[in-house]
Amino acid sequence: MGMFDDIMVPKSYLKDLLTKEQEKLIHGNHYYQTKSLDNALRRYKVYKQKLFLNDTDVVLQESKDSKWVSLDYSGEVFFYDNIKDKEGNCHWVEFRFVFLEGKLDAKYLEEFYIQRTIGQIKEEDRKWKDARKRQLKYEKTLKYKIYFFIFKILHKLLNKARGKVTRYDYPYGTTKV
After folding, report:
1. Which residues, in sequence order, are bridge partners of residue 52?
2. Please, what sign has the CA dihedral across residues 138, 141, 147, 153?
């Protein structure tokens, strides 16, 4: 999965891209994920047609002392999220904003579709619960208990052998074999 950044985009910036039905699913100022910027768990926002960065050292968190710094970023920023509607259906939404020297130049709706319906979500949940029941039932069998016992012994032996083979006498984590 990797790291990402969050970008807060007010709903007003998206209104002309969405249908009325799509617009109802998005509530207020919304944080979206993006991998188009630093990928360092930073917070960005679009405000007054400009791109801003939260200068705090605490990732994905705003504090009273943090400040929003305007950026001179030029390029595309893709941002996306999963949104649930009132019925429980899961929608995928993805946008693309183009910035030129920190100012919003163009905006596009890339994708907006139902990713999974409530029926599909309930069916997945049922399958996971059934699989978990089968696993718990298997863990009570003698066969599982014997193999798990052997596994624990082999795991302990492996850790002991690893300790005998590897020594961490050297600085900076280098090893001597």
Report:
1. 45, 70
2. positive
31 in helix, strand or coil? strand
Burial of 93 (0-12, 13-18, 19+ CB in 10 A): buried
Dump pLDDT digits (tens) for 113-136: 999 999 999 999 999 999 999 999
Q: Please give the single-letter amino acid code of residue 5.
A: D
Domain borders along the chain are 5-119, 124-173
* Residue appearing with tokens 């998005």: 26
Q: Are 177 and 162 in contact (CB under 8 A)?
A: no
**What pTM was computed for the model?**
0.71
Model pLDDT, residue 163: 78
Tokens describing residue 5 = 């950044």
Give the span between the Cα atoms of 95 and 111, in whole angstroms. Answer: 7
